[in-house]
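pls ignore typos typing on phone
S-adenosylmethionine + seq
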Amino acid sequence: MFDTNHVVDDSFEISSSSEKQIEKKPFFKSQNGKISIFQDDAISFLKSLADNSVDVIITDPAYSGMNQKLKLGSGKIIGKYSDAGEVGAKWFEEFHDTDENYKAFLKECYRVLKNSRHIYIMFDSYSLLSLAPIVREIFEVKNVICWDKANIGLGHYFRRRHEFILFASKGKRPLNSKSIPDVWKIKRVTSSKYPTQKPTEVFELMLKGSAENDFVVCDPFLGSGSSAIAAIKSSCRFIGCDISDKSLAFSTERVEQFLLTQSDIYQKSSLLGDDAAMTKLFSNGKSK
Ligand SMILES: C[S@@+](CC[C@H](N)C(=O)[O-])C[C@H]1O[C@@H](n2cnc3c(N)ncnc32)[C@H](O)[C@@H]1O
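k done
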């Protein structure tokens, strides 16, 4: 585990109006108090948050199902996330997505989310088929969004070019815009130093649909910090966690640098594909 040198004080106030405060110590807290990152297990982290204290959940869990169940021969469908420098070493743990564990995770998401708010959960195709029905038991699922990565990736049969994002709500809330399509053409991150790094634009689009200034955005599977960068670009507050030391190192360095220089050290340029709708949505130069 890392030390907590970055920490400014011991508790994190989720929002100025929130009565209850998180008792855990953040690994990183920005000077303005708007961005806090914790090292924790997702469920344990969510349990530390007050009821109805989060405005939007945007998250990309590390599912174990696809690797375990779609194994072919000795190969694995999505790789081992191994570090080139450490043969056989795993970059991070997969979240154990048994029905029970996944339901416990979703119930905590539901509890911490305010009423009339949105949640976005990313899925590979295997996990979508097995776990989406559980999301439906707890949230009102509104859309299955397809993230079109523009270029093909790995796959033993049809080569994968997409992932899914379930868009759901707790109570009723319209989207901020009626002009966002349900297929998002945004190029994948290539030669990233953190495996599974997603383009910030994917998270920015979620926030274009569902966030307002100063909304509390939460991601309990932070990885390289793309969702935190999207939250900053969208003028939101952010709380997130990850269990892995490497995630904490990447995400906090990335956020610190972004706050200082407005430049993203792990995604140097835009990954928008050649899609007129996407270009138009991002054309005002701001995230929202
Ligand atoms: C798919 S990656 C997220 C990638 C991220 N969206 C990005 O753009 O970089 C999933 C993350 O979940 C983390 N993780 C795995 N099990 C976890 C758990 N039980 N609690 C919290 N984080 C966990 C992994 O360390 C990994 O960083």
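Residues 5 and 210 are 33 Å apart (CA to CA). The beta strands are 28-29, 35-39, 54-59, 113-123, 140-148, 162-170, 183-185, 216-219, 237-242. more later
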